């Protein structure tokens, strides 16, 4: 898979997965995810996938300032209903990175590593997603304000031409560059921008 070069510049997310350690899937249980993993899961790179990646990364880092985030030890709750808009796409990326599922995930071994009932929807929260540490109860609300980073002018018109099959090769190339240009800006120029990805600790 030949991906845009900037994918490699996006900060990685390193976690400790005790289940992976137990089963010998990762030495020491250390698992590194990169943006390309979210792209492979979704099948494409877009502002929604970028937002899902970045909201999760920011939340997990904030919740674990002095240690690696624990995969399987995070609860993720969404303000929106699962089928609303792009919520399902975002939830898939959140599950990839945290291991959190509803009632259809890994059931655990010997009473440990249960990944079920860690993913919720239609929850009354201030942000788009609330991430909570299962062990301590510490939580943060995070959101994505993608309208703050718009597409380059003319991008919607180019998309229409591409979808209609009337775009020239040059126009299709311009569209792809503009589309991924916005993704790049969200992940690199604004990856830690509190105006674009606001994050707030939740009072205990």
Blueprint of the fold:
Layout: E1 13-16, H1 18-22, E2 30-33, H2 35-42, H3 47-63, E3 74-78, H4 87-98, E4 119-120, E5 129-133, E6 139-142, H5 155-164, H6 169-189, E7 199-201
Parallel strand pairs: 3-4
Antiparallel strand pairs: 1-2, 3-5, 5-6, 6-7
Structure description:
This protein has a single domain, classed as 2-Layer Sandwich (60s Ribosomal Protein L30, Chain: A), CATH 3.30.1330. Helices cover 36% and strands 13% of the residues. It has a 5-stranded mixed β-sheet, covered by helices on one side. A two-stranded antiparallel sheet has the order 1-2. The mean pLDDT is 95. The chain has 6 helices and 7 strands. The chain starts with 12 loop residues before the first strand and ends with a strand. With 204 residues, it is an alpha+beta fold. Helix 3 packs across helix 4.
SS elements, strand count: 7
Q: If classified by CATH, what would the architecture be?
A: 2-Layer Sandwich
Strand order of the largest sheet: 4-3-5-6-7
How are helices and strands ordered from N to C? EHEHHEHEEEHHE
**In CATH, what is the class?**
Alpha Beta
Please report which band the strand proportion falls in: under 5%, 5-15%, 15-25%, 25-35%, 35-45% or over 45%. Answer: 5-15%
Task: State the low-pLDDT regions, or none.
Answer: none
Radius of gyration: 18 Å
Q: How would you sum up the global shape?
A: globular
Q: The CATH topology, please?
A: 60s Ribosomal Protein L30, Chain: A
Percent helix range? 25-40%
Described by strand count, sense and barrel closure, the largest sheet is: 5 strands, mixed
- What is the number of helices? 6
Distance between the termini: 45 Å
Mean pLDDT: 95
The count of domains is 1
């Amino acid at each position: 898979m030949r991906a845009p070069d900037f994918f490699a510049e996006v900060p990685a997310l390193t976690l400790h997965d005790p289940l992976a350690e137990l089963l010998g899937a990762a030495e020491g249980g250390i698992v590194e995810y990169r943006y390309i993993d979210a792209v492979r899961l979704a099948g494409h790179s877009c502002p929604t996938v970028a937002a899902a990646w970045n909201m999760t990364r920011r939340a997990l880092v904030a919740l674990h300032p002095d240690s690696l985030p624990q995969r399987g030890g995070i609860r993720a709750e969404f303000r929106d209903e699962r089928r609303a808009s792009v919520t399902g796409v975002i939830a898939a990326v959140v599950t990839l990175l945290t291991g959190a599922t509803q009632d259809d995930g890994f059931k655990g071994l010997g009473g440990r590593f249960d990944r079920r009932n860690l993913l919720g929807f239609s929850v009354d929260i201030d942000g788009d997603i609330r991430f909570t540490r299962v062990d301590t109860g510490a939580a943060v609300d995070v959101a994505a304000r993608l309208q703050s980073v718009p597409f380059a002018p003319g991008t919607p018109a180019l998309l229409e031409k591409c979808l209609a099959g009337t775009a020239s090769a040059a126009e299709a190339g311009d569209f792809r560059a503009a589309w991924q240009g916005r993704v790049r800006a969200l992940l690199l120029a604004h990856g830690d921008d509190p105006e674009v990805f606001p994050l707030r600790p939740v009072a205990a």
